[in-house]
Amino acid sequence: MLPLKKRGRHYVANCPFHQEKTPSFTVSPEMQIFKCFGCGKGGDVFTFYEEFNHVDFREALEELAKIAGIKLKNSFDEGQNKNKKRILEINNEVAKFYHYMLVKHPLGAVAKKYVMDRGISDETIKLFGIGYSPEQVSLIANYLKKKGFFDSELIMTGTFGNSSYSNRLYDRFMGRLVFPLVDFRGQILGFSGRVLPGANPAVVGQKAKYINSPETEIYHKSQMVFGLNLAKEAIRQDSTVIVVEGEFDMISPYQAGIKNVVAVKGTAFTEEQLQLLRRYAETLVLALDADFAGNHAAIRSIELAEKLDFDIKVVDLLGKFKDPDEAVRDNPEWFKKRVEEAISIWDFIINSAVNTFGLENNKGKKEILNMALPFISRIKSEVIRSDYLHRLATIIGSDVESVKKEMERKISNFQFPISNREMIKTILVEKEPERDKRDEAEERLMTLIMGAKNKLKVAKRVDADLKFATIKWQKIMDLILANRIDWEMPLENVTEELKDIFGSTFLMAESESMESFHRKKEIDKIVAKLKSIDLKKQIADSAQRVAKFEREDNVEELNKAESENIAALLQLSKWQKLQK
């Protein structure tokens, strides 16, 4: 629960979405909204629940309805979602069965010894629900059918297949160590199975070391992040997530006390996985296999992570260990230190390229560029991208312009997906987007109007000189001028499209204490600034018209345009003086 303290008409607390010492999180009972003036988050009860619990709107609606004892139509428990509920029920039973076979049954003794030999404790086995599927084709299927589940339902989970040879169900994971694949809400969506050393090939087949559940109505590999259900609070607290490849790579560090770690099953991320992690973290620390930098699929992953504004770092295992699991089992303190000293992804890429190809000859330098430039070209910030181009040029003993041209050449020759072409065309000159200065000034002006004692009087004075250029602010201004706002219940006559922006601006206005004299002075300066912006645009437009009429030798229109230009220049001079 969030401890709220009453302050005037509102309640305040330390914001749960960012670290702060002085409360800036404000709740308005009248408007039924919240706003943090530190990080900017705001909205209604649904927005708060979504942000605080990291769920989407549908999930927030269903969970809040459950808390309030309200039954929703077409909810998760009804209609077309009955299949999903049934799959979850079966998956829970399957997970219990596998876990029992590992920890209690003699058939799981070999698998249990294997897990214990890898340093995994009984407590961790229980926490992750690790299990074992015996080398018996229909053992678990028969168990589940006795509990009332049908063949068609078991097949629907993806855990079972139907043998065309024997016409009976078989367990896809038989003979394997099994990890339940749990989503961030704690629901078991599927399973991952690992072959044990010495497993019978006739049972487990010649498949990969790991296999996952196939795609089902509830399990989608592209959205699965292993361990997030356990790690999310630590990730949220640190705003940092450590990403590894496999289940043991995640489980070993977690057991050793590194709680903000998850696994994504491979070196290539999907956009869905990254978006899910971005809900909790700002920093993405990669602890992947040593060949990550040479993996072309990783380029797209880094591009996606950059797009979501992650600060991307890498844990360099210095070639001592092949993966985090091995490092933690050998020396957990050493691994923790490597995590603390994680370096920028771009430094890691350049270091890996230099270590791989060397600087002894031109061929090695060329390969360094081939490996590093595709990554560096994805850096969104022009300043940071330029810095790494200089760094790379210095390392290979070249000038930065040559390296930049080489990057341009590689970009033009590389066939990027359609969705990326426009970004690639401008990547060398693209600058960080800036917030529209006019909108910022208009927002501040509206905050000052709403905070005034006589809001209508102040609004009329501003309106006499200025119209808001941004539609949302002018619509709010029109409501104030029409005297349609009940300032005791301010959202009552506000349309849905304006409620969020109106509510957060009003809360900001209410939180400020300002003398009328200082308020008037700041309002006058902002109005003068906005009028100057308008007049400069008007002057630029009329200058184009003057040039046009001169070319056309249109004396009448030329004189009119010049007169307008002079009048605008005089007005500009007046408003610029008022800004001082």
TrEMBL record:
Gene3D superfamilies: 3.40.1360.10, DNA primase, catalytic core, N-terminal domain, Zinc finger, CHC2-type domain. Monomer. Interacts with DnaB. Its EC number is 2.7.7.101. Residues 239-320 form the Toprim domain. Binds 1 zinc ion per monomer. This is DNA primase. SUPFAM superfamilies: DNA primase core, Zinc beta-ribbon. It comes from the Bacteria. It holds the Pfam family Zn_ribbon_DnaG. Belongs to the DnaG primase family.
